[in-house]
TrEMBL record:
It comes from the Eukaryota. Residues 113-155 are annotated as: Disordered. The lineage of its organism: Eukaryota, Fungi, Fungi incertae sedis, Mucoromycota, Mucoromycotina. Pfam families: Mod_r. This is VPS37 C-terminal domain-containing protein.
Length: 322
């Protein structure tokens, strides 16, 4: 389901929170809301609170994922409260169709009917006024897809919250002031360990892929050399082909219809000129009668043969298609 698909149901759940509860404040829009449950009397004598603040934390996948409700002041005792986190049955059995507003309202009614008591001895009572909200959920995407095991649940967020709330004020101050201590604590969180595991797996996968690629370097080099040789051979054969094609075209040009017609016309004119030259020589007395008749007859014979062929060619559709 995309973020657009979540938007409308999420807005409806937030609207129900305001509809079923009176004192609702916005801490972070669409992420955190504060609901005040007051019991009429502002005093808290005999260890009983007269007002409780419920911090409603909406995870990124809400309403597919259940909301996390925490209480303030911290360090209260009640069957529905475990380490400042509300564990009502309606939240444990949360579904997409559950109503956030009605669940929060039922929690307030339960606290009004059975107000929580103070917890006498606990490190949480002396530090801070409100439990930390859970870390939003997320997913890890890799080159091969999304890892289905990397999506932290509300339980994971609560375990991280518990890891912080179990610290004494002195230990918390040490974490804030000592970078080494903070690094040790941070690196020991389950979610951080999971991320490092994923990082290590990705690194190993990348190294294996790099080794596999390098192992094929010799084969790729050999194939590249073969391709280069084939390209050289192709270039030489192409040059030979183009030369033979040029020679073939020249041969075709010698026997083209226009070339044959031009040469035949030239032959007709040549035969006619030669016969006229022989006749002129006879008239001038340069040739005797016998030589004239013999030469003139041969030249005119050639002339008429060429003229006949020329006429036939000009009428032939093979040479002059219509």
């Amino acid at each position: 389901m995309t973020s657009k698909d979540y938007y409308k149901p999420k807005q409806e759940q937030i609207a129900s929170l305001f509809a079923h509860n009176e004192a609702v404040g916005v801490v972070i829009e669409e992420q955190q809301y504060e609901v005040s449950c007051s019991f009429g009397d502002n005093s808290n004598d005999n260890g009983v609170y007269s007002a409780i603040q419920i911090l409603v934390n909406l995870p990124a996948a809400f309403p597919e994922e259940a909301p996390v409700l925490t209480v303030s002041p911290t360090g209260m005792r009640h069957p529905w409260i475990e380490s400042d986190v509300i564990v009502a049955d309606a939240l444990i059995s949360w579904t997409y169709q559950s109503s956030l507003g009605m669940i929060v309202h039922s929690v307030c009614e339960e606290f009004r009917q059975h107000p929580p008591d103070k917890r006498n001895n606990g490190p949480e009572e002396s530090y801070g006024h409100r439990p930390q909200p859970p870390i939003p959920s997320y997913s890890i995407s890799t080159s091969s897809g999304t890892r289905p095991t990397s999506l932290p649940t509300t339980q994971t967020a609560n375990s991280e919250y518990m890891a912080i709330m179990s610290k004494s004020p002195e230990e918390l101050e040490e974490l804030l002031s000592n970078e080494t201590a903070f690094d040790i604590f941070f690196n020991d969180l389950d979610r951080v360990k999971n991320l490092k595991t994923v990082q290590d797996e990705l690194q190993i996968g990348n190294e294996n892929l790099a080794h596999k690629t390098l192992s094929q370097e010799d084969a790729v080099t050999k194939l590249r050399a073969e391709v280069q040789d084939l390209n050289t051979e192709y270039t030489a054969l192409k040059s030979m082909f183009m030369e033979k094609e040029r020679q073939q075209q020249e041969a075709f040009n010698r026997f083209s219809s226009s070339t044959v017609l031009t040469r035949l016309k030239a032959g007709v004119y040549e035969s006619d000129d030669l016969s006229e030259s022989v006749a002129q020589s006879f008239l001038e007395g340069s040739l005797d009668h016998g030589s004239f008749v013999k030469q003139f007859r041969e030249l005119r014979k050639v002339y008429h043969l060429r003229a006949s062929k020329l006429e036939k060619i000009q009428k032939d559709s093979l040479f002059f298609p219509s």
